[in-house]
Design a protein that fits this description.
Strand content: under 5%
Number of helices: 9
Radius of gyration: 33 Å
Number of domains: 2
Shape: elongated
């Protein structure tokens, strides 16, 4: 018991000595009116700027599935966009579903309609074909996709016209790769 008291005194004494000889400490580097002004600005930031920033960040995160679906030419972009809007209304509960949906390959859609791309993809590729930016095998692949869609009976008039333009383009310049000379 005596030994324990001695050990605790050795520990307590340096702490007490440090406490007695400590210089005066201030909680803030500001004082008076400067402290009040700083507190006002911090309150404004916390009450106005932070909530606005949080809402903007929440919105930016919730439109990510829309951007992914658009970039990947997902055929169900409109449904993913709608799910993202609903997710905003329901506090983000539907967002993981929209995220997964944007990254899935629409196998059932391809079985039903013959493609797994949005119509915008075909418009973009046709513009690139007209500009001569596509290789011959890319144009052939685009024609095959349009033929698969036509076989399923789901080729809209705009894409039928695109298919005819690709045939005309092929007759004018058969199998001339656009990337010759490019590295």
């Amino acid at each position: 018991m005596k030994r324990f008291v001695l050990c605790s005194m050795h520990v307590a004494f340096p702490g007490a000595a440090a406490w007695l000889y400590a210089p005066a400490v201030f909680a803030s580097f500001l004082s008076g009116d400067a402290l009040d002004t700083m507190a006002d600005w911090v309150a404004i930031i916390v009450l106005i700027v932070v909530p606005i920033g949080a809402i903007v960040l929440f919105w930016l995160v919730h439109i990510l599935p829309e951007k992914v679906a658009e970039k990947r030419h997902h055929p169900q972009q409109a449904a993913i966009n709608t799910l993202c809007l609903l997710s905003l209304a329901f506090g983000g509960l539907l967002w993981p579903i929209a995220w997964l949906w944007a990254y899935t390959r629409p196998v059932g859609y391809k079985l039903a309609y013959g493609t797994e791309k949005h119509d915008d993809y075909f418009d973009e590729m046709s513009e690139r074909a007209r500009a001569g930016e596509l290789l011959a095998h890319d144009v052939e692949h685009l024609r095959d996709e349009l033929d698969a869609m036509a076989a399923k009976g789901s080729l809209p008039p705009r894409l039928r016209q695109l298919r005819a333009e690709l045939d005309a383009l092929h007759r004018v310049a058969p199998a001339v790769p656009a990337a010759e000379g490019k590295v």
